[in-house]
Structure formats: structure tokens, C-alpha cells
Amino acid sequence: MTERPLINEEDYLDDDNGELLRFWMGDSVLEELYPFENFKDEIDNHGGYLFELAKCIEDFEDELHEAWLEAKVDEEVRVNILKSRGIERVDMFVQLKVFSPQLTEEWSDDHPYKEKHRSDFAKNLDDHLDNLKKWLADEDWQESANLEQSDCKFLEKQSPKFFVDRDGRLYRRNENLEGQHRLVVPKEKRMWMITAAHDYVGHKGMYATESLLKKRF
To answer: Which Gene3D superfamilies does this one have (predicted)?
Structure first.
């Protein structure tokens, strides 16, 4: 058995007679933000905690930095304890998320977007997507654009089905679910989007990938 240090009974003496603690302004306080006399009696002087008002983003940054320093010190203490016991710690890297491929010209050439299965209408709509965005976003462009009469009729007919958000992205309206509109992806990015969606759901198969795409696109 290990020998325990003697208990100093004076450490456990309670001299608190129940009298409330008195508060006063510190010597370095030159100006009261609020009249101290108005709220000093409302301070919990037995079981209270110190609360401070954060006035700017730097206050939060300071707290985060202090928390980071504490975590760093704790980690160094753990490492030193392990070393003192002859245990070496090895840092390991685990990739929990699959990163999407880089959308380069070479990648696009290796993953071409096939259109044999698509209808003539779908192909025609793809060809008009850029003009459709301009048609919806800029009324002046509608008047100044040099378009064929057939193109103008096509854009005018399709425009109620789409809209452009404040960031310039084209969406197709979802008539069945209000608010869950579908992002229109340019043809040159569709194969990359399918690959990224498949990687995002963790290679869970075609059904999971298809469900994600149908919900968002």
C-alpha cells in the first residue's frame, strides 16, 4: 500500500458565518457603465458565476484562442505522461470524407457526357440555357438581344418554369414541393456532379446517389 499524505484539517475549516459578501468598484474603474448601486443587491454572492458581455467579434476570437491554448497544453501534458511511461504516440491521418475530383479539361475528356438517350427537346433546352439565364435576369437584355423569332418564343414559353437567384444561379421551379426548387447544372459539369454526389454519399450505391440528385437537381 502507498502511504497517503497527512490531511491538514485547517484546509477543511469553514469560517463562513453566512454573512453576504460586500461588493464595491475596483480602484482601476474610472467610469461606471451602469449605475452599480442599481443592481449590486441582485448579484448572487454565494453560488453565482462571472458573466461578461461580448461587445465585438474579437471577444469571441479571444475566447476561442484561450480554449485552443488550454487544449494544446492538455495535449502536451498527455504526451509527456505517455513518454514518461515509455509509450510512444504516433499521429495518424484518417480521411473520413471522399474529396470530389478536380474539374479539369482532362477529367472532362475522360468522362464525356453522353446525350444519345436524351430527347430533342432536352437537347434544345440545354442549348438555350445561357440565353434563358439572361432572359430571366435582365429585362433590358430581352429587348436588345438579337435572337431569332423562334428562339424568343421558346424562351418566353420556358421562362415561367425557371428563375435566377440573387447569386445568378438558374433553378427549375418545383411545382410539387414549394421551396424545394432544383438547381440547373450546365452540361459540361453534369458528369462531375454525378461523381461528386456518388462520393458524397460514401459510395452507397446507385439508389442513394439517385435519391440525392433527384432531391436537389
So the answer is: 1.10.340.70
